[in-house]
Design goal:
The protein is of the alpha/beta class. It has helices spanning 41-49, 74-78, 96-105, 111-124, 140-152, 170-185, 226-233; strands at 2-10, 16-25, 30-34, 56-61, 64-65, 81-84, 158-162, 189-194, 206-211, 214-220. The strands form two sheets. Strands 6-7-8-3-9-10 form a six-stranded mixed beta sheet, sandwiched between helices. The chain is globular. 40% of the residues are buried. Bound molecules: adenosine-5'-triphosphate and magnesium ion (MG).
Length: 237
């Protein structure tokens, strides 16, 4: 589903954000991009989403080479992707319903169908009672869940989530990870960027350890649990 071949990203020539990243993510995987602040996690997700362009190297998503098609194709590709932003990017003066539904409105889905899908997804994330609230008065955890609902409402083949549990306590983190597991079980490929070692307990299929823009190790775990394997290899600390 995602192939990166010798990808580099330099925002400025002096400090490369990503260096020589080669990575393969298969359909249906549940992957963590794991590393400290500044490691390049957000940059990596943005490259997969086509929101940033590589300085060098190739990125192929869903069989399409990001370097080779017209800009006008990007929105079509994005319809198959959901992105949970690190800073949510919610519209603060629109209701929770609108925040989630707008993504469907812009692709021309009928109002009744939008309503059905939005109510269903808000129920999934436990926000049925907040439909007509504006994000400004929601807690951090509730805003996080609106951002997740918006990213999954169009049933994407690929869900990219940037520190999706960064604002949550242990209990809510568990809830959100459970939700990601359910979405993954529907067949959605999931890539989560995190600095939180505790998330490694949630049985990813692969952990990509990033540091200073470089891949320090890729730990393929199947469904067994990444932390054990990673610790045994002595590379995640
Ligand atoms: N738009 C930008 N312009 C210039 N430099 C940038 C930009 N975005 C990121 N960087 C730099 O690239 C490097 C990687 O940043 P990135 O945001 O990808 O890290 P991160 O792993 O997501 O960190 P965090 O855990 O703090 O979110 C950092 O050194 C950062 O300063
Ligand atoms: Mg980040």
């Amino acid at each position: 589903m995602i192939q990166m071949l010798h990808v580099y990203k330099n925002y400025s020539p002096k400090y490369p954000a990503l260096s020589d990243i080669s990575l393969n993510i298969e359909k249906g995987e549940f992957v963590f991009i794991f590393g400290p602040s500044g490691a390049g996690k957000t940059t990596l997700l943005k490259l997969i989403f086509g929101a940033e362009h590589p300085s060098k190297g190739q990125i192929i998503v869903n069989g399409m080479n990001f370097g080779r098609f017209k800009k006008s194709t990007l929105p079509l590709l994005r319809r198959k992707m959901g992105f949970v932003f690190q800073d949510f990017k919610l519209l603060n003066h629109r209701t929770v319903f609108d925040n989630v539904g707008l993504a469907l409105e812009v692709v021309g889905i009928k109002k009744t169908e939008i309503k059905r899908r939005v109510l269903k997804v808000l129920k999934h994330v436990g926000l049925s009672s907040r439909i007509n609230t504006v994000p400004l008065v929601l807690s951090g955890g509730e805003q996080q869940r609106v951002a997740i609902a918006r990213a999954i409402v169009n049933e994407p083949a690929l869900l990219l989530a940037d520190e999706p549990t960064g604002n949550l306590d242990a209990e809510l983190t568990k809830e959100i990870m459970k939700l990601f597991k359910i979405i993954n079980a529907w067949g959605t490929t999931i890539v989560i960027a995190t600095h939180d070692k505790n998330l490694l307990n949630f049985n990813p299929t692969k952990v990509v350890a990033l540091e200073h823009g470089k891949i320090k190790g890729v730990f393929v775990t199947g469904r067994k649990g990444a932390e054990e394997t990673a610790t045994r290899n002595g590379s995640i600390n």
